[in-house]
Every structure is written in structure tokens, then in C-alpha cells.
Design goal:
The complex is a heterodimer of chains A (538) and B (335). Chain A is an alpha+beta fold and 538 residues long. Chain A folds into three domains: 2-145, Orthogonal Bundle (DNA ligase i, domain 1); 208-403, D-amino Acid Aminotransferase, Chain A, domain 1; 407-529, Nucleic acid-binding proteins (OB fold (Dihydrolipoamide Acetyltransferase, E2P)), CATH 2.40.50. Chain A is 38% helix and 23% strand. Chain A has 21 helices and 23 strands. In chain A, strands 4, 5, 6, 7, 8, 9 and 10 form a seven-stranded mixed β-sheet that branches. In chain A, strands 15, 16, 17, 18, 19, 20 and 23 form a seven-stranded antiparallel β-sheet that branches. A five-stranded mixed β-sheet of chain A has the order 2-14-12-3-11, with helices on one face. The model of chain A is unreliable at 530-538 (pLDDT under 50). Mean pLDDT of chain B is 89; it is low at 327-335. Chain B folds into two domains: 2-144 and 281-324, Metallo-beta-lactamase, Chain A (4-Layer Sandwich); 150-277, Rossmann fold (3-Layer(aba) Sandwich), CATH 3.40.50. Helix content of chain B is 23%, strand content 24%. In chain B, helix 1 (54-64) packs antiparallel against helix 4. Chain B has 335 residues and is α/β, with parallel strands linked by helices. The chains are: A alpha+beta (538), B alpha/beta (335). Chain A binds chain B through residues 12-15, 65, 67-68, 70-71, 74-75, 78-81, 84-85, 88-89, 92, 421-426, 452, 463-464, and chain B through 142-146, 261, 263-267, 269-270, 272, 274-275, 306, 309, 312-313, 316, 328, 331.
Amino acid sequence: MKRFAALYAALDRTTGTAEKVRALADYFAAAPAADAAWALSFLIGRRPRRPVPTARLKRWAAEAAGIPEWLFAACYETVGDLAETITHLLPPERVEAGPLRPLSAWIEETLLPLRGLPEERQREAVLAAWRAMDSAERLAWNKLITGGFRVGVSQRLVVRALAARLGVEAAAVAQRLMGAWTPGEAFWERLGAACTDDADASRPYPFCLAHPLEEGPEALGPAAEWLAEWKWDGIRAQLVRRGGRVFVWSRGEELVTEKFPEIAAAAAGLPDGCVLDGEILAWREGRPLDFARLQQRIGRKDLTAKVLAEAPAVFMAYDLLESDGRELRAQALSERRAALAALLSAAGGPVLLLSPQLSAPDWPALAALREQARGRGVEGLMVKRLFSAYGVGRRRGDWWKWKLAPLAVDAVLVYAQPGRGRRATLYTDYTFAVRDGEALVPFAKAYSGLTDAEIRDVDRFVRANTTERFGPVRAVKPELVFEIAFEAIRPSPRHKSGVAVRFPRIARRRPDKRPAEADTLATLKSLLHAPAPPPAAS
Amino acid sequence: MKPIAHLIELTESGMHCREGGFFVDPWRPVERAVVTHAHFDHTRLGCGSYLATPETALLMKARLGPDLHVRTLRYGEEIDANGVRLSLHPAGHILGSAQVRLERNGEVWVVTGDFKRAADPTCAHFAPLRCHGLVTESTFGLPVFRWPTADAVTTEISDWWRRNAAEGRPSLLLAYSLGKAQRILAGVDASIGPIFTHGAIEPMTRVYREAGISLPPTRAVAAATGRRELAGALVLAPPAAEGSAWTGSLAKASRAFASGWMQIRGNRRRRALDRGFVLSDHADWSALLQTVAESRAERVWITHGYAEELARFFKEKGLAAEALRAGQMAEEADA
């Protein structure tokens, strides 16, 4: 546990990628196989189901610290992290030279059995664990039992360090991390096996990325040389069907096959030896659901029938990179699309869709289509050169994203509350209001889009201009005006303003505007669009 | 128990002793000001007259101008202000920092000002005082704030510096220019390499030396200071200097911050620092509790920081405690 706690501290301390990789490599080199396997599972975000309800942990920690629960809550609010709060509050560690207990023993013999114990036994076990640990160990342990173990290393980084340590290709390591496995020595051995045939079958191609189209499309030449389609707002992914198996890779080169069982099942009907590029979307009745729904679903650990029914996923294919085991990337997009259409007409279905090609005679006609994007739940248009090969990475020239400009209003800062985690001591989460006669009506919360200096500035303003407090929330003098941008707006009886905006963020400060010059609720409501019909299937 | 006469009241301009006719650390210009210590948020310009310890007077003049008129009072020395006996006692916060003790008709009130009880070779150690009414700060008035010993922290700082020096990297340590910087100077292992200080720190350090505090030699860091000279050096700068032009030659430096706020990981991570050293010139939770207990005060007023929380905690323990709403001042706590 000491070694794991030191790894956690090292990863937590540094912001440099090289140092993180070094810390990971050092750990994997030194740790016993069973420990390494457990650490690995935590590092890539697998968490044991929360063994103890958080409320109990809070209560026991307050007891151990000899403080009332309200004071514990005040501490938590200041620290912004439960595991850390508990660590700070526990009585100073006793210097006890007990036997060193490995991470795997702590997990297998103490943490995992907690779930089944009656509360009193849980309490004894948790208190005993705290007593046996020093403060660095307590923090790592608390992170594990609160289910909040995150260290700011991507799976890619872990895989890189692991690959270097095991002498196995990174792609093979990533592939072996898929699926259900139990941390332990046996798994660790399998992970380091030298023969990588098993992994080669899963490998995706590097994704071709688009550039934003800043100016009009006329500079691209005749519209006839371009393919236009909707810009879907989902998760970019490749569907790999090889060797009788299916692999779904997200753009972050993460295997997400298990997150989308319905896509995996549908893809099993594809002929062997093909790779599709496209977008994972939450989809219902012929149109995409909010990206937030998809996001929510990704966050769920248990894909219950209810979750699957609430946000059914589809794969919207728009490119074919491999067919019949033959790579197609060098072929023209027009040919790849034809092959894709043929493939899906035979093997597609309600879950494997073909992204429709939009036909319009010229750029103005396409621009008109683009204006419908918001109503259709898409972000705008993609414009791709018909005769281009499938490139690697973000190359200029062949793929363009032609997004809709966001909607925006000028609004007044009315409430602020501290952030979480690293922003816990700053007022970073804001509520904005528009004018309605003399009143100010809150309509959006936003917490991104400001620089650190601006955040500090607003933080100072909030502290100096608080008019009322409601727990952690402060009402402030309506004085600062911000331009708030958002992607979409819809009517919402649940909100006081009568509207809900999607992905609101701070576009910029408007020091030139006074609150009386902020936009009105009427202006905001005028941005409501009637939903457009679903996109036609082709 | 006889009723306690309030020797202190809170007004728009700050803590006021009506009987004595003076303010303690006023927020606005007033006729007569008693100053507990020389940090900016405790010293308002434009007052008619100032009363402070001789060390605080020197520091105020170095910061606010040599013409400032400050009447001085040594620790333990007593004067009479309209029938109120007033004396200053060590607060252990920074050089010259004082608690203000007021007595009239047998009633004693103490204003701690900012204080700490931890060891600090650069200032007189905190003197516990008995009183009927205590006005205490609470900058770190939550039980999550528990300081490691200053020795342990300065050793950590030295180790960090030594490792950077071995790699030929400068060590940029952000610390408040008055108090914290000098405390670090007095504690680090000066044999590791040269020490440079920012322009805001150097004049304060000079006053410390004049006051007889022994500190290792330092040089002023300026835009002209070359990269080669800084390799392996410790560079002390106030937090506000971070990112300013002269830090250019320090681009490769390991960056750290010494403050009580570094106890919270979020603060360290937000600034993307390489290290955060938990070193504070304020009392931590246990020192606050100890101070209130030792004072045996029947009434406790709490300013600066976590006043509401600390007041509620004491009230639940049966003590007459109250959070002073000190307006903006409460939010400008330096640490």
C-alpha cells in the first residue's frame, strides 16, 4: 500500500507527462504482479462498486476527528474533495511498525468484503484501516473507498508506461485491457505475453480529423467537388470487424465496445474484415438525442435495460476504411462512400446507419441547409473533398467542419459558488440572468470560458459584493455583464426563465456594458426555434 | 461574574476602542490607529497618527515612506489612553507583530491580530495573555488546517532546492514578501547555492537585518540576472510576481509556493505548481483552540476567515463566541 500511495502522490504532484510516465514505469517495475494488476485497474478508471455509503464514511470520519457533522461539512466544502477532507481530519497517524501490507491484500481482504458486512463491522474495518495507515496511504485508500480515485492520467499514458515495462506493443496492451478481467497475477502474465496476434486483429486506423471552416465555403471551389453531410454531435468512433470479433474504438483510442452492446451486436452482422468510421449517437425516432444523454450513459457503470432504453445508441457510418480485409484509405472518398453504402444496404439496419449525403446544387443551397442544423440536433455541416484519400490526423484541405455559430446573449452575473476539486477555493461556478422588466431572471449556469486571471478577478468581485448567502452559494450585486454563448435553446416549463439552453459557456466579459444594457428575457425567447423534421434517411 | 464592559466595538472603520479614542488596524483613515503589524491589509494610509512596535514602525516606513509618523511602544510597555491602559505583546506572526492588550477598571480585552504559535526565528514568540474578552483571527479556523512543524517544512524546501540545484534548475519559491520570505531565508540550508530575492522582498529583508535578525546573504533578482547565474539558485518572489516579465529567465525553474493554503491539494493543482509547501504565519486549528482556552476569555470575537464556523464551534462548547462581520477585510486575509 505504501508503494501505491507513493505512486498516487507522485502522479498527483506533477503536471508533466514525462514525469507521470516515469512514475508509472517505476511503479510497475517494482510492484509485485498482484499489486500491479490492481493498481492498473484503478489507473484506467475501473473502480470497485462503492463498498460503503458516503454518508457513513463522513459520519465515522467526523467521529474519529471528534468534530460535529456540520463542521465536517464545512471542511468538505472548503477542501472540495471527500477523500482529502477525511485524510486531513483523521487524528495524526500512530507510528506503528506493523507488517507492510500489499495493496492486493488491502483490496481483496479488506475493501471488497466491506460491501457485504453489517454497518458496525464496516465501521470497525474502516477505522482499523485508517489507524494502520500513514497519511499518504490514507489519502489513496480514501480515494478508493469513496470511489473517487482519479489521478489525471489518461488510459493512453498508462498503456504507454505499461507497454514500455512489459516490452509489448501499446495496441496489444490496450486490447488486452478490454473485457472482463480480475486483477491478479494470472492477468498480469497474460498482459505481458509476447505473442500479439490476439491484439493485431483489433487495431483501428488513425482518425482523419477536420479543420473548422472559418470563412465562407466559396474559397473551396465548385460545390460539386465536395461531399456534404450533417456534422453529428456524438462520439467519433471506428467499428472494427475482424477475426469474427467486433471492436469499437473511440477517437481517444479507447476501446468502448462494452459501453455499446447494441452496436457491437449489430456489427456482428457485418462481413469479416471491415472497418467503418463514423459517430456514435444516442438516437430515437429518426433523430439524435442530446449529447448530454449519451454522456450520461457513458458515465453509467451498469448498463441496465433502463439505461439502454433511455439512450439507445446507433453508429452513424460515414466512411469505409477497410473492406474484405483490404485497406481502402488511398481510394477516393466517392469510391469509399459507394462501397460503404453498398455494405450497409446489405448488412446495415436500425443501429448501423449511413450518414446521408446532402445534395444541393451550390454553396448557397448548402448554406441554407446548414441553417436547419440546430432544429435537427446536429452541429452544422461536414464538407469533404470527393476525390480525397483518408488522411491521418488534422490535415488542412480535405475535411472541413462548417459549424453553426453559437447563440449568444449578454447576461448579468447573479450567483456564484465555489468549484470542486482544484477550484474549490475559488468562486468559479456562476449563474447568469437576463432582464425581465425590473427583475433579473436566471437562465443559465456556466463555469468555463474564463482565463485564470479573469477567474481570480471575478472571485474578488464576488467576495467583495456578496449580498446574501445560501450555503455555499452567494448572491452578488448585479454588476458584471458577460456574453453567454450556447448551442441550442428549447422551451422548458421546469426553468423559471421558461427556457433551457444547451452547453452554455462564457464567451467573454463585457466590461463595456452595464446591467441595464444586458439582454432581456424576450430577446432570449426570440431565439427559440421550432424543431425541424428529422433528417431524411437516404 | 460581573458583566463585561465592551472595550472594543466594531464600526464601519474597523475595531474601535471608544473609551481610549483609537482604532485597531482600521480599514479607513481615522484619527488614531494602533497597528498590530505591517502587512498592507492592516495598515491604512492617511490616519492622523499611528502606534506600533518599533519593528513594525521600521517596516511601515520601508513600505509606506520614511516620513510616516509612527509612535512606538515596545513589547510589554504600557501607555495610558484616556484611562485605558494599552500595551503590545508578541503575536509571533512576523517581525514586530503584536497583540493589543487593553485594560480599564479591571476589565481586560486582547486583540490578537494575526498570530501564530509555531517556531519562527525571525520574530518574538507568541505570548499567551489572560483576558475577559478576546478578539481572535480565524484565517485557518477549520480542523483541516493542521500544520506540520516548521522544521520539517524547511527541510522539505531545502531538499527540493538541493535536487533542483543538482539538475542545474533554478528553484522559484513564491512566498509573501514580508514575513514568510524572511522566515524561509532563516530556515533553509544556505550552503546549497546562491539566493536571489524579488524587488518587493529585498527592502523587507533589509529591515529584518537592521533589526538584528540573522539571515543568509541574498541578491536582488532583476531582469538582467542571467540564466547561468540562476541555475541552481533559490529565487524568492511574492505570489503576485508569478508570470511577470522577469520570470522569463526562470522558464525552466521548478515552481513552488509556501503557504498554509497549500494544505489543500486543489489550491496547489489550480496553480499548476510543482510543489506546495505548507508553511503559514497564522495559527492552525489547534493553535486557535489552545489560544482561546489559555486566555480564559468569557467572550470571544472572531474575525478574518472562518469566523462563523469557529464561533459556532465555540458556542456549542458553551462559550460566548461571535463572528465579527468585518466586511471586505475578512476576505482579504493574507496567509
